[in-house]
Amino acid sequence: MSAQNPAHRFAVVRDEGPDRDWQGLDRLVRPVVAIGNFDGVHRGHRSVIGMAMERAAAARRPVAVLTFEPHPRSFFQPDEPSFHLTSEAAKLRLLSATGLDGAILLNFNTALAGLSAEAFVEQILVERLAIAGAVIGFNFYFGKARRGTPDFLAAQGAHHGFSVDVMPPFQLQGRRVSSGAVRDALAGGHIAEATELLGYPYFVTGQVVHGDKRGRTLGYPTANLRLGPDCGLKHGVYAVRVGVGGARYDAVANFGRRPMFDTGAVLLEIFLFDFSGDLYGAALDVAFIAWIRPEMNFDNVEDLIRRMDQDSSQARHALARAPDAFPTLGSPG
Known about the structure:
This protein has 333 residues and is an alpha/beta fold. It folds into 2 domains: 171 residues, HUPs (Rossmann fold), CATH 3.40.50.620; 119 residues, Riboflavin kinase-like (Elongation Factor Tu (Ef-tu), domain 3), CATH 2.40.30.30. It is built from 10 helices and 14 strands. The strands form 3 sheets. Strands 1-4-3-2-5-6 form a 6-stranded parallel beta sheet, with helices on both faces. The protein has a 6-stranded antiparallel beta sheet with strand order 9-14-11-12-13-10. The longest helix is centred in the last third of the chain and has 20 residues. It is elongated, with a radius of gyration of 22 Å. The two termini are 17 Å apart.
């Protein structure tokens, strides 16, 4: 198993259709699978994954997640922006750092959406994957019209010969951990709460793009990222930690429209402390460590610079209190 074999690789198996081999599945023979969307890979998801790993270790089987891309909500409501905590790539990086042997990605399309619960079990879990066991959350439903309930899956497991564990709600201080609760925390700028629910600092990944270079004239040259239009993070100023290549840098960042120079574009503008160099085109991982303040307008540039100085000082102090805060990310493949 992966936890016992430091040389293991994390297999990513993609659904390429019923008549094609799923490349990499030979590395996940008779797996125990944790099934779900896993948006954010938060503490509740990790409890499901942890149980799957326990079952797999006891049965001496590989262990993987079985998940869906795109998110079913995006498939059923394509015209409604939906704030997803993790892209497919980010989700795989988080999952690959858990000790799992791999991830199986089902293409959530018209065919899968129309598959009955019985057919999902028979065609995918039994015939295609030949699973040894499944672990799901208490609120996992599947199949056409969501008619596959946890009780139904347990009965199907007994019939087909695979184990089924249904995990109860995962709670912190009496509050259920969910992707929705994390989204609400981020939308409110409650970074400490989001970190507690996730079990790691919320992060985004993006490629540095050219901005208007106004920060240079203010003494704060920034690296700019364009996040997706569905990002529901509250606009404001944050203490962040940036990963680029193998290095990490403390930084302060503004996410939003910059009211004083509003051009209509929403950007994440990051000023890296104690850094000099060209980051254009580089891919950055930006972890949000602390909230500082909402976006503000200023009477003049001098007032803006004074406030930026204050923001930087607050960010340095917040980051010093969390010197190791950064998500643990793997390299799937």
